[in-house]
Amino acid sequence: MLFNSVEYLVFFPVVFIIYWLLKDRYKRQNMLLLISSYIFYGWWDYRFLSLIIFSSFLDYFVGLKIEVAQGKKNKQRWLMVSLISNLGLLGIFKYYNFFASSFANSMSTIGWDVNDLTLNIILPVGISFYTFQTLSYSIDIYRGRINATKNMVAFFTFLSLFPQLVAGPIERASNLIPQIERKRMLNNALIKNGVFQIIIGLFRKVAIADNLGVYVDSVYANYDLHNGSTLLIATLFYAFQIYFDFSGYSDIAIGSAKLLGFNFHRNFNFPYFSRTLTEFWRRWHITLSFWLRDYLYISLGGNRRGIAMTYRNLLLTMLIGGLWHGSSWNFVIWGGIHGLFLSIEKFTFSKFNIKTFNAFGYIYTFVVVLIAWIFFRAPDLTAAFTIFSKIVSFDFGVLFIGNINSFVNAICLLSLGIIIDLKIFRSDIPLENYGVQYNTLKLSVLVSIIIIILCLFYSTTENFIYFQF
């Protein structure tokens, strides 16, 4: 079920009404959320429910075992059960074909023809997100940061809560389970903030991202036919398409959660207003960035083992983070580009004792991110290097416009989106708390205007980009 679908437009109000009719019985609310979340997830393919239910049972009991286990080694054994099981499932469904085909290709280069080892496997929606979420629960118990919950319904709800189930934010048990285990209240501030963020999210996704995507898809699908100017514009459009698409999803998720009485972590904080790549990753997909820092970078040793190991750990973290996004060498290179420049920044800052760059940093950061997006979006490595070479060799010519109305609409909507972002960014008020700036009448008018815009510029594109990860 998609946030921008008619089904969700019916599903959420029904859940919302029944949910708050049970407001004095929060345990029944939790059961309703659990059932609703399984319906939401099973809407794509009910067979995938077995995977998330398995992970829920596994880590619920593993968490209890880790907490009562005597001695570090015994705790480690139970933690390994969680790591091997969850990463094993993720590896089979997401990475088996990638490594099998990579092995076959590498063998063919030395003259050894290997039979096709790939399998006909469908990638379950959201498996990368809920796998990271359940792993953080087991690791936090092992580290002594949280206690294992004995409330099975609360834990199952934590792992499957539908607003964040498919594409985050990646919530920590320390934040979400306590909210699930206590009574929730709905107030005027939550309603205003939730409604405002949902409507902004829909505007970002439906009006901006989907209209940009029409041009991006047409160019990248025929990259060999276009010159550098067209490919540059398409890449610029993609940089904003993926931002507005994914931040729009996060906005709808966070706003929906607010209307159910929950507070999720912020996931985007205007990342293109960053002066360094380090700052970019503190603003882009924040819950993933912090997950990689806390559970991968620090586990590898962080910056505790000397400068050389720090660079190694940083580069490995970003390479693995790239691979998390997809089973392709494109994503590995994308992560490698970010890891390389993050390491260069760390060296530069320590060498010259500075904390950030000046205004030129905005240009530098955006250019690095833009180059990396080429590898993220291109269908394969050959396409990525071809597109990159055409752009940097200034192979420019007449810009391909396509449908002039669609092109102009995309530019106008993008400009409006940037203006809105700039206004909120300069206000120093987080988007998550921006709705209370308006009284009920002004908020109603604003919502009505955005709904009209959505109807006028609705695109046939529906899927969110991060669903494929």
TrEMBL record:
Kindly list the organism's lineage: Bacteria, Pseudomonadati, Bacteroidota, Flavobacteriia, Flavobacteriales
Q: How does it sit in the membrane?
A: Multi-pass membrane protein
Give the matching InterPro entries.
Answer: Ac/AlaTfrase_AlgI/DltB, AlgI, MB_O-acyltransferase, MBOAT_fam
Q: Where in or outside the cell?
A: Cell membrane
Which GO annotations describe the biological process of this protein? alginic acid biosynthetic process
Q: Which PANTHER family match?
A: ACYLTRANSFERASE (PTHR13285), TEICHOIC ACID D-ALANYLTRANSFERASE (PTHR13285:SF23)
**A GO CC term assigned to this protein in UniProt:** plasma membrane
The molecular function terms in GO held by this entry are:
acyltransferase activity
Q: Which UniProt keywords apply?
A: Acyltransferase, Cell membrane, Membrane, Transferase, Transmembrane, Transmembrane helix
Q: Which residues cross the membrane?
A: 6-22, 34-58, 78-96, 117-139, 190-208, 228-246, 314-337, 357-376, 396-420, 440-459
On whether Manganese is a keyword of this UniProt record, the answer is: no
Q: Which Pfam family, an example, fits this chain? A: MBOAT
- Highest taxon, organism lineage: Bacteria
Q: Kindly provide the name given to this protein in its UniProt entry.
A: MBOAT family protein
Whether tRNA-binding counts among this entry's keywords is no
Give the organism the record lists: Gelidibacter salicanalis
User: Record's family?
Assistant: Belongs to the membrane-bound acyltransferase family.
